[in-house]
Structure formats: structure tokens, C-alpha cells
Specification:
This protein is an all-alpha fold. 73% of the residues lie in helices and 0% in strands. It starts with 6 loop residues before the first helix and ends in a 7-residue tail after the last helix. The relative contact order is 0.15.
């Protein structure tokens, strides 16, 4: 069975996804010191760009390497129910993650650290209302905004790579694709200080584990619903939760331990990923 796996197509896809990502990360790393106050803008542009590399790589391989038909069984929107479920479940995961983080690193509901970093002496509106509105935005608006760049990744990882690996078996495909997705993020950790880990080697291991577990969860639901769109929406929700309200309320914690990128995040996501693997054990991909 393993002999039928498209090693040539997968190899080309991985090369086209990884090499430009590493190259652009090296360029970004070399110019960071000269960017000064513009670093936030350039970081956003950087991530917006690299998120499209996997999807573009999948398109190139399908069109020019394998010359495949573009009829894609994973390109279904499907029922609205799983979208509603993940829009509630993923924020719940982050509530748990940061509730546990708060035991070790107390939250800052006064937002004093946020105001100092933003150069604001006094909030022009009620802080509680600001937190509530921002949280609602991360639930409703941000996932929709994040959908397009997330699709740039998911068309590659869950739309192309995961189905290609299915001949290895469903569980292996989910785990291997998740690990590869995690490894793809390593240049960000090591070259541009992504997630601000105090120890990059440990941070790289933790973040790879975290992304692997997340990839299993996203991949399992994408396969079940045959939907790269659902995978993109889930990815968008995770990014919204990971980069928005929680980083404001919890401005100071050890990223190796707390938050969505630390050991606590891995511990919370682990049973979710194991459950997905167990549920898909006797499923078939058609």
C-alpha cells in the first residue's frame, strides 16, 4: 500500500513550501534590527506572505508536476453545524488554557501593561467594556478576516498533503501531516523569535508538539467533513484566539509554560488530538 503514495508529488510540495519559507525567514531575520518601530507591520506582512506558500505549492504541484485534475473532494463547504461547534469549542479551549495559566501568571485586567506598550496614558473608555468587545470581535470578526490567509495554508496542508498521505492509514496521515506542519513553523521560532520563547530549542520542541496536535484536530474534522473550508475557518479561529485578547490580558508569562504556545497549551490540546485519533480509527476516507 505504501508504494502507492505519491512520493514525487509530496517531495515537490514540501520543497516548494519549505524552501521559500526558510529563505524569507532568513531575510526577515537579517533586517529585523534595521526595522525598529516598523517591525510589527513588517512581521504582519511576513506572516501574511508565508501563509500562502503551502497553498501555492499545492497548486504548482497539481498543475505542473502531477498534472492532476483540479476537481478536489476536500473543497466542500458542508453543513454549518461543525462551523458553529468549532466557533464555540476552540475559544473554550483557550479559556481553559489561560485559566490554568492564570494560576501561575496572574492576568492584568487593568490593562496597564498594554497601555504602556501602546503608549496610552489612559483608556478613553471603560476597560471592562473594551475587553468584552474585543473578545466578541475575536469570536465573530477576526476568524472571518483570518479565513483567507488561513486558506492559503490549509489548501496545502489539509487540502493536498493530508489526502496524499491517506494511503499510509488515517491515523498515520493525521500524525505525519501534523508533524510536518509543526516543522514548517520552526524557522519562525529560531530565526525571527516567534512566540518569544526564552529558550528557542525548548520552544521549538513545544511549538512543534502544539502544532502537531492542532493539525490532528483540524485534519480529523477536515477529513470527516471533506472540507478545506472548515479547516481554514478553524485555523482562523485559533489565530484569532492566539494573537488577540489573551495576549493583552496576559502580557507577562513564560511562553514555554503558559499560554496557547506553552506546555499548558500542549496539555489541553493533547486529549483533543487523542480523541480525534481514536474516533477516526475505524473511519474510512472516500
Amino acid at each position: 500500500m505504501n508504494d502507492d503514495v505519491d512520493r514525487r508529488g509530496i517531495s515537490w510540495f514540501l520543497a516548494l513550501a519549505f524552501i521559500p519559507t526558510i529563505a524569507l525567514s532568513l531575510i526577515m531575520s537579517s533586517i529585523q534590527d534595521s526595522l525598529a518601530g516598523r517591525i510589527i507591520i513588517y512581521n504582519k506582512l511576513f506572516f501574511l506572505t508565508v501563509m500562502f506558500f503551502p497553498g501555492i505549492s499545492a497548486l504548482i504541484v497539481r498543475k505542473f508536476i502531477n498534472k492532476e485534475c483540479f476537481k478536489d473532494p476536500m473543497m466542500k463547504f458542508g453543513s454549518w453545524k461543525p462551523y458553529l461547534q468549532v466557533s464555540l469549542f476552540i475559544p473554550l479551549l483557550y479559556i481553559i488554557i489561560y485559566a490554568v495559566t492564570g494560576i501561575f501568571y496572574p492576568p492584568d485586567f487593568t490593562l496597564k501593561t498594554f497601555m504602556i506598550r501602546a503608549g496610552i496614558e489612559e483608556m478613553p473608555f471603560d476597560i471592562s467594556s473594551f475587553i468584552l468587545v474585543l473578545f466578541i470581535l475575536t469570536l465573530v470578526v477576526a476568524p472571518i478576516i483570518n479565513f483567507i490567509p488561513a486558506f492559503g495554508e490549509e489548501y496545502g496542508w489539509r487540502g493536498y498533503l493530508l489526502p496524499k498521505l491517506m494511503l499510509l492509514g488515517r491515523k498515520k496521515a493525521l500524525v505525519i501531516s501534523g508533524i510536518i506542519w509543526g516543522l514548517w513553523h520552526l524557522p519562525f521560532v529560531f530565526l525571527i523569535d516567534y512566540k518569544s520563547y526564552p529558550d528557542k530549542m525548548a520552544g521549538g520542541l513545544i511549538f512543534t508538539a502544539l502544532i502537531t496536535l492542532l493539525g490532528i484536530y483540524i485534519g480529523a474534522l477536515a477529513l470527516k467533513n471533506k472540507s478545506t473550508f472548515l479547516a481554514s475557518y478553524m485555523h482562523g479561529i485559533f489565530n484569532a484566539q492566539d494573537h488577540e485578547i489573551w495576549t493583552i490580558i496576559y502580557p507577562n508569562y513564560n511562553h514555554l509554560i503558559g499560554g496557547g504556545e506553552g506546555l499548558i497549551g500542549v496539555i489541553v490540546l493533547l486529549p483533543v488530538a487523542l480523541y480525534c485519533l481514536r474516533k477516526t480509527e475505524f473511519s474510512s476516507f472516500q
